[in-house]
Amino acid sequence: MWFRIRRLREEKADLRAQLDRMRERAENAEATVKTERNARGIVVRQFCEADAANKRLHGRNVHLTEQLERAREAAQDGALDEMGARLDRALRACARYRAEVDGQARLIRNQQQLLDTFYGLDTPAVAEGEHWQQRRHDKISGAKL
Questions:
Q1: pTM attached to this predicted model
Q2: Which residues contact 70 (CB under 8 A, 6 or more apart)?
Q3: Maximal C-alpha separation, the chain
Q4: What is the rounded distance in angstroms from the CA atom of residue 22 to the CA atom of residue 29?
Q5: Rounded to an integer, what distance in angstroms lies between the CA atom of residue 52 and that of residue 109?
Q6: Most buried residue among 10, 103, 135, 144 by CB atoms closer than 10 A?
Q7: Are 98 and 104 in contact (CB under 8 A)?
Q8: pLDDT value, residue 90
Q9: CA-based Rg of the chain, rounded to a whole angstrom?
Q10: Closest alpha carbon to 67 in 75, 78, 57
Q11: Is-contact 106 121, C-beta < 8 A?
Q12: Distance CA 73, CA 78 (A)
């Protein structure tokens, strides 16, 4: 009888220890989820800012290209001396904006790589599952989707 009570107490202590370990693991998992959610928000915000800057720079680049075309047309009319200073300034601005666009494109690629890594899209398992629809066992033969 006493032996059985002692054994039940030991099992109870073991179960409490196991419950404490499981509770700690659950708390750690919740903290990890919060951290990942915060990191995802930061990455998405940075990606959106980089995309907006890229669109803004693209619009400026289009405007400068139009100015260059007008300058070329004016050069054909012999008005190059008048437009020389403006053309030089436009070319320098275009070079600056192109460099900025390239920098933003690099930033966007880096942010996309971070997102892919964060969501696990760069793992070998994803690459192996690329053609999963052709290997489906329940695939209807002859059906083209």
A1: 0.37
A2: none
A3: 114
A4: 10
A5: 14
A6: 103
A7: no
A8: 86
A9: 31
A10: 75
A11: no
A12: 9
Q: How far is CA 93 from the centre of its chain?
A: 29
pLDDT tens string 20-64: 999 999 999 999 999 999 989 999 999 999 999 999 999 999 999
Phi, psi of 116 (to 5 degrees): -60, -45
Instruction: Calculate the dihedral angle through the C-alpha atoms of 68, 70, 71, 75, rounding to the nearest 10 degrees.
Output: 140
DSSP conformation class of 139: P
Tell me the CA distances in angstroms from 93 to 55, 60, 67, 68, 83, one per residue in order. 17, 10, 11, 11, 15
Q: How confident is the model at residue 125 (pLDDT cuts 50, 70, 90)?
A: confident
CA distance 45 to 52: 11
Q: How far is CA 118 from the centre of its chain?
A: 8
